[in-house]
Amino acid sequence: MKKQLYILLFIFGILLFPQANYAQVDFNKKPDDDLGDNEDAYQELFFEALKQKGIENYDRAIEALLKCEKLDDSDAALYFELGKNYNQLKNFGAAEDALQRAIKKQPDNEWYLDELYDIYAKQNNLDKAIKTVKQLVKYHPDYKEDLATLYVKTKKYDDALKVLDEMDAELGVSDTRDRVRNRIYNATGNKKEQIENLEERVEENPDQEKNYLSLIFRYSENNEKEKAFETAKKLLESHPNSQMVHLALYKFYLDENSADKAVASMQIVLNSNLIKPEAKMMVLQDFVKFVGKNPEYESQLVEITSQITDSEKGKSNIEVAQYFLTKGDKVKAVSYYEKALEKEPENFGVLRNVLLLYIDVENYTEAVSMSTDALDKFPSQPIFYLVNGVAQNKLNQPEKAIRVLETGLDYVIDDTRMEGDFYKQISISYTQLNNTDKAKTFSDKAKQLESTN
Questions:
Q1: Which of 133, 183, 324, 354 has CA 20 to 30 A from 78's CA?
Q2: For residue 150, what are the CA distances in angstroms to 125, 187, 194, 253?
Q3: What is the pTM of this model?
Q4: With 60 as the cut, is the pLDDT of residue 371 above it?
Q5: Residue of 121, 120, 61 whose CA lies nearest to 96
Q6: What is the dihedral of CA 374, 375, 381, 386, to 10 degrees?
């Protein structure tokens, strides 16, 4: 809606209204009828209506305006004000009638038309909204965007595309209109026309990187990989410093087994300040998978991870940690998880993985310390009680282990495997204390749960 742009001008016009109408009145002349009294009454009521509307007392504003109508029904502004007040009260039928009367008196007043458009939009009366917006387009081309959207809602896709094409030709392409255009293509499934439109853009504006990128994406989406690859190479040729193009190129290089080129493209992406972190993480995941199959590139993976910006290091270190974990190198895995934890200290998954790896690499002292801190943050997570108990047993501190394990048992719900692990550790604790009876009791409980799994 554009009416906010004109409210100030309109109010200013209203304030001038009395002067314009009464500038020729001779107040020294003795009136020969009650015309002067009517004019004064009209003016007083009209401004009373404006005042009541200003304090959101729309009913009283309407009462004053209806009294104005009885005195003089020739003023279009009267019906405009009536329409606006009825609109505020959601009395859309009365609002429409009033505005139609205002428009009949002043057919070319865009403010009146805009208010009428607002009423139709609120009622989702798309056909009448389209008719009104078509009139508004004459005054402001911005309304064409509204018109295109209305055409889409009424499934008049060809009409919508025609309007979008007109706007693109006049104003150049825009992201907003492209989103509307893509909605149309998705609704109609007309991918051919969508691609043809992008091909024309590339041909007509070869300096626009965005056109190439959009075309690459649509080719890829349409499974036309060769055309997508060729377009990416053309983009690189015309824009050798482009970083965005490497989001596509690295995959094409991987497909054709050009490993060095693929790695170079991935490095450009991961070092870029223009590419969003989410996209970088997807590339890093592909890099990790690639290095898993081509371990000779492991040093490049480690190097590029160290160069990633601080804000992205948490997730990137997790990816590398998982890579080393897959390889079975738990020492390197835990070192990268620790780096990730420095950036994301509240990350439950990373904290759990670090603690479990501490047990695997026999770093029991650190496991006790970190799991104790973890229990302050996550007091209802049984895994941290279990890790703490395991580490305490490994450090020959069975009393502490029993206390923490028995506390943690209260938080184990519907997980018989974990419950069994608790019983095993408690059995180990009692064995260390030479309490064979209790050790056997908890060992039997663990075996009983194992038999049910």
A1: 133
A2: 10, 15, 20, 43
A3: 0.56
A4: yes
A5: 120
A6: 90
